Structure formats: C-alpha cells, structure tokens
Amino acid sequence: MVGDAGAARKGRSHVSHDTGEDHRDLGRDQLHARDDGTASATLPAPIASALPASELRPYRDHVDADTLRAAAARARLVGVGVDEVLVVSGALDDQTATHLLARDLGLAVAAPNLANLPDDAAVAEAVLRTGTLVIGNGSGRPRLVMAARGRIVQRLRRALKHDAGLAPRVELISAAALARRVGAVCAPSFAAAATGRLVLAAPLKSASTLRPGRIVGLAAAAIGLPLALLLALAPEMGLLAVQAALSLVFLAWIALRFAGCIYVPSEEPPPVLDARSLPVYSLLVPLYDEAASVPGLVAALSALDYPPEKLDIKLVVEADDRATRAAIDALELPPHMAEVAVAPVGPRTKPKALEAALPFVRGSIVAIYDAEDLPEPDQLRRVVAAFRAGGQKVGCVQARLCIDNGGDSWISAQFAAEYAGQFDVLLPALSSLGLPIPLGGTSNHFRRRVLDQVGGWDPYNVTEDADLGIRLARAGWQTRVISSTTFEEAPVTRRAWIGQRTRWLKGWAQTLLVHGRRPRALVRDLGPAGTIALMLLTAGPYAAALVHPLCLALLIADIVRGVAGLPCTRMAEVVTSALTYATLVTGYAGAAATMAVGLGRRGIRPGWWTVAGIPFYWLLLSVAAWRAVIELIRRPYHWQKTEHGAARRGGGGGLRSSASAPPRPRPEGAWS
Q1: SS3 annotation, 353-366
Q2: pTM for the structure as a whole
C-alpha cells in the first residue's frame, strides 16, 4: 500500500487557520527561487492573467497573492496546473487543495476509506491510471470518485457546466488518499498479478518454467558421458576438447572487450532544458532492509534537476520490512515522493516488487534506482534527450554506473575497475553496434508502454535486468547507453562480493537457459550477430570463470615439472599449451586494457596492485561461478541481498564525470 505508515501525518493540512501563515511563507520562498538557489524578484501580476481566472479562484483566500502569482507563472512555465504547483511547493497539501477545489466546484469530498474498491488488479490499476473510480448505482447513472488535478480539473469544470446533473454524482478525493486506499485493499492482488503476469502471457520467457536440475542432468548425460568416455580412452584429446571449447568462447569474449577499448563514444545531445516539453517521469526505488540508506537516498533523489511537478517517485518496500518503513515515515517526504508497500505474495525478489509497484506510477518514462545510488542531477533530462534523438525504436536508455568507494578495500578496488570496463568501455560499444545489452540493475530508463509490451520484469529471474534487456532486443527495441553517471557502492568484503556475484552468475545462467531453449526463435529475433553477442555476454563470464582455474593449474603444473616453455613433442601438447597461454595472456591483457581505458575515462590511473590482483580476482570469480551452478540446481530463485551502508562514500568527488558535455544552466525558474 502507498504511504500507509505515514498516512495520518501526511494527510494533515499544511495550511490551517492558526498556522497557515508560516507555510504560506515557505511556499512563497520556494516559488521565488531560481535554479542556482539565489532569490529572484517577485513575478509581476500580469503573468497570472495567462491562466484562466477559474483556475486561481479556489485558492485566493488561502494562499497569499505573491505566492499565487508565482505559482501561476510556474504553472505556465512547466505546463501543469496551478494546483499541482501549490502542492509540490508545500503552499498547500494534497488534502487541503482537494477540499478547496471541491468547494469551488460545488462537489462533495469522498471519505479516505473508500468502499466499493474492486479487489481486482487490472481494474485497480485502471483506477490509478485514470484517477477515477466508477461506482455502479443499480439502474441509474454511476457515481464517480475522482482525483482531479491539473488540466483534468479544467475538463471537469467544463463538464459540470454543460451537465447540470453531473455534480451530485461526483466526489473528489486527493490523489495520495486514492493511492493509499487502493494500495491498502489491492496490495495482495497486485503482488499476485506481478508474480504471474509474464509466465501466463509467455511461459517460455519466464525463468519460473525452467527446471535447472533436469537441464543440468540432461546436459551431463548428453555431454558429460561421451566426454568422460573420451577422457578415459584418450585423456589428452578429451582434455584438449574441453579446453578448446571453453577457451574459444572466452577468447571471443575478450576480443569483444578489446573492440570496446578501440571504440570512442560519440557526442550526445545536450540535456532538454525546456521544462514545458518534459514528460512526467516516474522513479521506482526498491528497498529491503535499507533503513540506514533512506535519508541519503531521499537527499540524492531530491537533488535531481527535474521539475518536481512532473516527477513521481515511489519508494518500494516489503510490507513487513518495519525498519525501512519506519525510516521512511520518520522523514518529511516531499509531495512527489511516496511509499509503496508490497504484499508478501510470491517470490521475495526485487523484480516482483517492481512489478507490483508498477501500477502506481503515472509517468510515461519509468526509471529504476537502488538504495545506494547517487545519480548525476541532470540524468533525467539527458535521458529525455536520448529518447528524442534515438526515435521511436529506442525503448530503453541505460546510464553508466560508477563505483565511488573503490578505495575502501582491495575487493572494492577490483570491482570499481571491472565496472569501469563494463559501463565505460563495453556497453557503449555494444550500444553503438545495435547489439543486445544486458542491462545494469539500476539507472535503466524505460518507455512505460514498452515495459507493458514486453511483459515487465520476470519475478523469478535473479538478474532481471539482464533478462529484460534481452527481451527488449528480441521484441525489436533498441537500448542506448548514455554518458550520464550514477555512482554506486561496491561490496567492501570478499564474503559480500561472492554472495552478490553468485547471484549475478546464477541469473546470467537463467537468462541464457530461458532465451536459449528455442534457438531458432532466438536467431530469428536477434539475428546471427545479436545471438552470438548474447552467447558471449552470458556464456563468456562463465567460460572465463571455468577456464581460468584449469589454465592456471596447467601452467603451475608445467612450472613444477620444469617443462614450462620447453618445446612440445606432440601436437596435442602444442595446442593445449597454446590455448592455455593464450587464454591467460589475452584474458589478463583484456581485463587490464578495459580496466585502464575505463578508469582513464574517469580520470583515474589504475594502481599496480589492482592490475597485479587480476588473477586472484578471477579465482574468486571461479568460486562464485561454481556456487552459482549449485544454487541454480538447489535454490534457483533465492535472492541473496547485497548489504549496503558499509562503504565510505565519496559521491564521485574524485571521479571525472563521463558526460560528453557539462550540463548547461537552465533558463527557467525552478524549485530550490
């Protein structure tokens, strides 16, 4: 449900007869602040005349003239209703604005504990999208409960003028109250619908229909038994066959990374500055056991450079996560932020929570952020510019992720270097080539209609981001990688890192198995190049993790036996040695190159200890890979959560932004 924990507090009016003056002053101060935080002169009265007098009339006796004039100017500037401006500024709260509007229109106000709400996810979602609940009245005309805001208010005003019998059948309710009530009644239905939406629509695209144990057993029977026979009859040839197959996949993956090092990202369009043309933007932020992260998260989201009247932020929590909900309730959330509590129905995973919260968003663009994220302030504007420049075939925009606590430990330094190679080298190259992109788990921005079309997130895939990126590509949608950065926190202990990487590798295996079970359809959807890229991006990490211990063991065995570097006497030895050394040398070189190029684009030179630690880092990858295989069989849907809050965050202070051009100052006024 939405905002249940703080409903009573947030439902109180900020403007009352005895304390309203202080809040009116606050609203006026906000309305008269420019983007740079300096005070501007009071806007002239003629600006207010640009809006219909009827739009201002409900609030004249409750908001001082200066604030109302500034709100009218702001409404024209941003392209929203003056009521939306007043609510976002804090000059009025949602409940008070609803009462004032209802009195002006001659309508009743609905009770917050609405009856007659349908316990049906599809109907409830329609109520949230339209802001209207239709209540049947036997054989007579139905009653309407409406959360009317902005331009819809003017349409309602015209409808009431032309239909004298409409007013007795219409009641108003605040948008926040409607969302809270729908959430309270329909949270289990939303969670159940989220759990079954993809699997019912397209069973073969959901990891829930996989039988990993059976697949591994069949693979062992089809590949393992002949291979075991070969190893028994011809050990050298059998070993060579295994190493050759894995090494070739791995070497192709490394070649793709070298290609990324050569690619130079093109300059991107500047951020959109015209607030009136910006769409409504929704942010979903899933939280679980993140009480310590909540204050910093709210501060980071509040720093986003986007009109708050067009910003819709949902903090998505599990209904039984009392600590996180208490932390949210302890804050005075801005009016454009709200809590969405997800019922404990179905798998307890991040994608299920996102799917269950999706009905509550109202934006045409939906973005995902994590609890520890620190996005660059102009990221949303840059995403809008990327969507417009890319055209209608672009369904998703991925921002770059950058680790800002690489100095905390050896493992966080390795992680930071790896991320630099992934998001500043490899993904931009894939984007430019139009190849499928396994999305990062955060800072991906979707067209809402595209999310609906491809079935949203798979609640049973533990790397829902990678899976969704592939489904987007298979449906014909393109993903663009932009230079705007979101700073993230890396695990600071090896134990936390291994847990996180085990989940990632398990999810990549799920994704590969899901999309690979109908090979012909996959090639038809992605084309040969896209299919090969998918195989390399998902099988490549596994090949790297599996081949590395084998190659390292062979090299160490040769050194111990004193035959390393000596001429080989048999062709099998020649090929085995060549693959071993080529895999090690190119693997280390490829990792070091992408690391150096990626960190270089951030203004950082990798330390010798980071480069020298690559072999040990890869051994840890091998541990995570084998753990992932075991978990894939035993606990395929288990979500091992990554702990946050242990890092010393720098907010990217020592890192160069990867943006192609610095953000330009906005010409219009904005909230401080």
Answers
A1: HHHHHHHHCCCCEE
A2: 0.86
